[in-house]
Design brief:
The chain has 178 residues and is α+β, with helices and mostly antiparallel strands. It is 42% helix and 25% strand.
Length: 178
């Protein structure tokens, strides 16, 4: 996208006059930000850059995609932690509370670290099934889900899970001990 940059001669302040109308804050429109986030969540940053160019002619460096993705992730984390709608939606959703977690080791600049992911969900009960039928049945979709994760040691993981349980109004957290 190309646009004209205006500078006030009196005060030296400048900006792109059409940005607000176009929905641009910074260097990307809201639509481009969504595409960048989706691409970065699906592929490596360099692969996302190549595919965005191929799919829609959007030319961005892998570093630009990384920067925008990390910022959107930070914004999402803050919203998820602070927005009352997250707790309200979870509490009002029908179904029983489920907790799922998994982890793996990832190679970081500081060496191998544990990456842990977890999901609190609420789901209404499905039809009864015998153990032999468990792998063939289809459960109802969750009515609400909250996902969280990070690079945590085993000792730090339990408190993170209990903190999320508290944010969601879940009182029973005995299963979240490490």
């Amino acid at each position: 996208m190309q646009r004209i940059y205006f500078v006030c001669q009196a005060c030296g302040e400048g900006g792109h006059a059409a940005d607000e109308w176009l929905g641009v804050a910074g260097s990307l429109s809201q639509g481009a930000e969504r595409l960048v986030a989706l691409a970065a969540a699906s592929w490596s940053f360099d692969r996302a850059a190549a595919l965005l160019q191929e799919f829609c002619g959007l030319t961005l460096s892998d570093d630009t995609i990384r920067r925008h993705s990390l910022e959107k992730g930070r914004q999402m984390r803050e919203w998820q932690r602070q927005a009352p709608q997250v707790r309200e939606h979870f509490q009002q959703a029908p179904g029983a509370i489920e907790f799922s977690t998994d982890g793996t080791s990832v190679n970081t600049l500081e060496g191998w670290r544990e990456m842990r992911l977890a999901v609190f969900a609420k789901r209404t009960a499905g039809a009864a099934a015998t153990p032999a039928e468990w792998d063939q049945r289809t459960l109802p979709a969750p009515s609400s889900r909250v996902l969280f994760g990070g690079l945590w040691t085993a000792e730090a993981y339990g408190p993170q899970g209990r903190a999320w349980a508290g944010r969601l109004g879940i009182r029973q957290t005995a299963a979240l001990t490490v």
